[in-house]
TrEMBL record:
GO terms for molecular function: chorismate lyase activity. InterPro entries: Chorismate--pyruvate_lyase, Chorismate_lyase_/UTRA_dom_sf. It comes from the Bacteria. It is found in: Cytoplasm. GO terms for cellular component: cytosol. This is Probable chorismate pyruvate-lyase. It catalyses: chorismate = 4-hydroxybenzoate + pyruvate. Pathway: Cofactor biosynthesis; ubiquinone biosynthesis. HAMAP family: UbiC.
Length: 205
């Protein structure tokens, strides 16, 4: 049985999926903890997939984001927020945090993603590594969500650190109320499920 309360804060209490307070999470694991490309899963679901960029700005990361990225408390980062839509409905809210240093050199093109899928870029990189997930249960009116995506029901979220070309970036995803997909592995190629690395474990809260 899950023994955590939905979190309404702007910087949720992220936990390891093995936290005993999340003992009832087993029924949700097939999608929440799938380590493949979420973009690929959404595209393979059969609906019309679209990335809607909600905002992109230079900002100071939230406290827990700075910790997992091992960045200074005042270091600026490019924060990108998007809605992943299927047949027009927002099914996932994604927040990506790119420290300034990560957008130099080989990753400079990530400054100009516009409506492109970040996941498609990350999972096409041979040297990409991903940390194990942290998860959080958000209230439907959580300040972590943009106002336009707040909802009546609580929502599960996950985040992980990607390491690419020697740089770190953080991607968080919230599975919204319309998210109703089959379990991973049914009709979706799993070629991208391969690169989870405990060597980039995020710091715990």
């Amino acid at each position: 049985m899950i023994r955590v309360q939905p979190d309404s804060s702007a910087d949720p209490a992220w936990r390891s999926p093995v936290d005993p307070r999340l003992a009832g999470l087993h029924g949700l694991r097939p999608w929440l903890l799938d380590d493949g490309s979420l973009t690929r899963r959404l595209v393979a679901s059969g609906g019309t997939f679209r990335v809607e960029r909600l905002s992109q700005r230079w900002s100071t990361p939230r406290a827990s984001e700075a910790r997992v990225l091992a960045s200074g408390p005042r270091q600026q980062a490019l924060v990108r927020e998007v809605a992943l839509r299927l047949d027009g409905e927002a099914v996932v809210f994604a927040r990506s945090v790119f420290p300034y240093a990560s957008l130099c050199g080989r990753l400079a093109h990530l400054r100009k993603l516009q409506g492109s899928s970040l996941g498609a870029i990350l999972f096409s990189a041979p040297d990409m590594r991903r940390s194990p997930f942290q998860v959080a249960l958000l209230s439907g009116d959580s300040r972590y969500l943009p106002r336009s995506l707040r909802q009546e029901n609580s929502a599960w979220a996950r985040r992980s650190v990607f390491r690419l070309h020697g740089q770190r970036l953080l991607v968080s995803e919230v599975f919204l109320m319309p998210f109703r997909l089959r379990a991973p592995g049914t009709g979706v190629e799993r070629g991208s499920r391969r690169r989870v690395s405990a060597a980039i474990l995020p710091a715990t809260q």
